[in-house]
Amino acid sequence: MKQLFYSCLFFSLLISCSEDDETAKSSQTITFDSFLPTNLSEGSVTVNATASSGLALTLTSSNSSVATISGKTLTLLKAGSTVITASQTGNDNWLDAPEISRTLEVFEDNNSAKKSQEITSFVIPTSWTNLDGELPLEATASSGLPVKFYSTSPYVEVKGGTLKLLDNAGHYENTRISVIAHQGGDTEYNASAKVSREISITHK
Hints:
Elements: H1 2-24, E1 30-32, E2 38-39, E3 44-46, E4 49-51, E5 58-61, E6 67-70, E7 73-76, E8 80-88, E9 97-107, E10 119-122, E11 127-129, E12 135-136, E13 139-141, E14 148-150, E15 156-159, E16 162-165, E17 172-182, E18 195-203
Parallel strand pairs: 2-9, 11-18
Antiparallel strand pairs: 1-4, 3-7, 5-8, 6-7, 8-9, 10-13, 12-16, 14-17, 15-16, 17-18
């Protein structure tokens, strides 16, 4: 009976110590910028991701036929999409970080059998505040195909052809961000080059 008691006490202490070890560790998070549309001719993309702990990240690609990974460099192999996942498993001082995934879209822009195209007009204001409401974005492509817009800024959200300032980003004044216009092509046209415009934004 005593042997059973001490065995139970021993295992209880082990579990308690293990829980205390986990409690003593610090939590960490991963910051991982979204990808802009990427043309195949660009050759490679650098991943902008870090762990708050400063520990190295592990990156994986869900589709290695589209892009392979070496360090923080993605080598582009063909048009398509792949999900890039960043993870950090912690160590003696840090807990595992929640994984973050971003989708990389690679567009064909160098097919000699297709026609080329370009963004022919893309005009946005030089400044804008949240008091102005949502900002419509307009651009045209020489192909006549619809243009899509992108931004990796944490201060804004792009939905369709509309730019919206995010309330949860706090208050900021005269912060410059970039908005990208791009046309991804189709069976007749190669993708266009990206066109970037800067705008100074204020959230009150």
